[in-house]
From TrEMBL:
It is an enzyme of class 1 (oxidoreductase). InterPro entries: Ald_DH/histidinol_DH (IPR016161), Ald_DH_C (IPR016163), Ald_DH_CS_CYS (IPR016160), Ald_DH_N (IPR016162), Aldehyde_DH_dom (IPR015590), MeMal-semiAld_DH (IPR010061). Belongs to the aldehyde dehydrogenase family. This is methylmalonate-semialdehyde dehydrogenase (CoA acylating). Keywords: NAD, Oxidoreductase.
């Protein structure tokens, strides 16, 4: 076990790492071995309130801190994250079971957001119009909104916290992070490095817990905005409750992402990308491809998809040959096994069944092998529900129009992709599809931080999305000034008596 993991996780409140007074604690386990890594407290209401009070106090100074100073902290933070990427990735592997490469990617995608946050001065430029009326000018500023809070899921314990607090803080806000209780160690390490980068006391706080702690944050009148990433039912609850308390809320939720495969596609690229994007990270990605829609002749590739997928082997992260790791918890594994059984009983053809998969030397890991269902139809629960495991459904359709209709009928709208050699097909797909992130011959089209992460429909509740210009809009208020100066005052200015006070 990593020696830098403490036996009890502290809270980070008012610039101090403190032990919680909570009577309720939760074990954080290694999903590949079942061993306990540490335990995390369910933060008490008093401790939560202290975090909010400290963040509110810190805001009064931080909002007036010059933008270049705020940007320089992000520059230093980016350098520290790069320097510590590998040790951080090892901790991330311990608590998530991800492969080492995947863990480094989780951190890297977060580092890119920190780089973006370092450009905050240009991102926060307002607008100006001269002479909106005679001798009257109009201009706008973006100003921070106050204390913001972030609630994050287990599946990207580095990237998703880093989607949130660097942008919020660079805008001049202060931030309370409530990471997933399933893997809160990495987020604590992120906060330690942020402190090392020179972040003043109180601008970032880290509290632990689950539903009750989140509800207290949603109700707290001093928190002005909530960023959430997680499942659909919780996302709806967060959006409804947060807005009921008159907060600004952005809630990124679950998904069921389709890849449409046209018969003219580059066959090898399409098949390899189907496999990597469906079972990579054990399917625990909100942008994972969980449905491949085979159009016409592409249906004949089913046996080859099966053969390539059969070669994929989960395993422990220290084994470099492991293609992906375990599921996050025994409960998550049970849930996925339940769907595999449902898929069989609903009549889909189970071409690969990973439910009995085990890994030598790791009998307590939450393993599920790659699982493939063919001839899946839109009424089956393996098609309608987000399984969040290494399970791929193949659906057959006759035409591009049928594929578009299928995708647009699904309630989710996080990501989709199309594999084709035809520009006309790709153009029609990108134009007509009701999904917020579209890949053309790219399986997982996650936008880089100068764009925004733009899920639609049941995959997102709110208006402004994560990172990019939209995050700056989300974490700021616009102040518009209309100014008039009188010409008659010029003469007075020129001849005014210079009295020294
Ligand atoms: P989750 O919804 O169970 O938990 C997310 C966060 O909400 C955690 O911090 C948790 O403590 C808290 N929470 C859980 N239940 C709560 C409740 N009843 N009330 C208030 N807070 C509660 O999600 P998860 O299992 O950690 O993550 C996986 C889900 O996240 C998947 O559905 C995945 O698609 C989604 N996800 C979406 C995106 C996206 O950008 N759209 C990105 C990553 C993950």
């Amino acid at each position: 076990m990593d020696k830098s993991i403490p036996t009890q996780l502290p809270l980070y409140i008012d610039g101090q790492w403190i032990q919680s007074d909570s009577k309720e604690w939760l074990d954080v386990t290694n999903p590949a071995t079942g061993e306990t890594l540490t335990r995390a407290p369910y933060t008490t209401p008093e401790e939560l309130r202290n975090a909010v009070i400290s963040a509110k106090k810190a805001f009064s100074e931080w909002k007036n801190t010059p933008i270049p100073t705020r940007a320089r902290i992000m520059l230093k933070y980016q350098a520290l994250l790069k320097e510590h990427q590998e040790p951080l990735a090892r901790i991330l592997c311990e608590e998530t079971g991800k492969t080492f490469e995947d863990a480094k990617g989780d951190i890297w995608r977060g580092i890119e957001v920190v780089e973006h946050a370092a450009n905050i001065a240009t991102l926060m430029m307002g607008e100006t119009v001269e002479n909106v009326a005679s001798a009257i000018d109009c201009y706008s500023y973006l100003q921070p909104i106050g204390v913001c809070a972030g609630i994050t899921p287990f599946n990207f314990p580095a990237m998703i916290p880093l989607w949130m607090f660097p942008m919020a803080i660079a805008c001049g806000n202060t931030f309370i992070l409530k990471p997933s209780e399933q893997d809160p160690i990495t987020p604590c390490k992120l906060a330690e490095l942020f402190e090392e980068a020179g972040a003043p006391k109180g601008i970032l706080q880290v509290v632990h817990g689950g539903r009750n702690q989140v509800d207290l944050l949603l109700e707290d009148p001093d928190i002005k905005a909530i960023s959430f990433v997680g499942s659909v039912p919780v996302g709806r609850h967060i959006y409804q409750t947060g807005t009921q308390y008159l907060k600004r809320v952005q809630a990124f939720a679950g998904a069921k992402n389709h890849m449409v495969v046209m018969p003219d596609a580059n066959k090898n690229a399409a098949i390899n990308n189907i496999i990597g994007s469906s079972v990579g990270a054990a399917g625990q990605r909100c942008m994972a491809i969980s449905v491949a829609v085979l159009v016409g002749e592409a249906q004949q590739w089913t046996p080859e998809i099966r053969d390539v997928m059969a070669k994929v082997k989960p395993g422990h992260w220290k084994n470099q040959d492991s293609d992906y790791g375990p599921l996050i918890s025994p409960a998550a594994r049970e849930r996925v096994l339940g769907y595999i059984e449902k898929g069989k009983s609903e009549g889909a053809d189970c071409l690969l069944d990973g439910s009995k998969f085990s890994v030598t030397d790791f009998p307590n890991g939450n393993w599920v092998g790659p699982t493939l269902f063919a001839n899946v139809t839109a009424d089956m629960s393996i098609y309608t529900d987000e399984i969040f495991g290494p399970v791929l459904c193949l659906v057959n359709v006759d035409s591009l129009d049928d594929a578009i209709q299928l995708v647009n009928t699904s309630p989710y709208g996080n990501g989709t992709s199309i594999f084709t050699a035809s520009g006309a097909v790709a153009r029609k797909y990108q134009h007509e599809i009701l999904v917020g992130q579209v890949g053309i011959n790219i399986p997982i089209p996650v936008p880089l931080p100068f764009f925004s992460f733009t899920g639609w429909r049941a995959s997102f509740y709110g208006d402004q999305h994560a990172y990019g210009k939209q995050a700056v809009r989300f974490y700021t208020e616009t102040k518009t000034v209309t100014a008039r100066w009188f010409d008659s005052d010029i003469e007075h200015a020129e001849h005014a008596n210079m009295t020294i006070h």
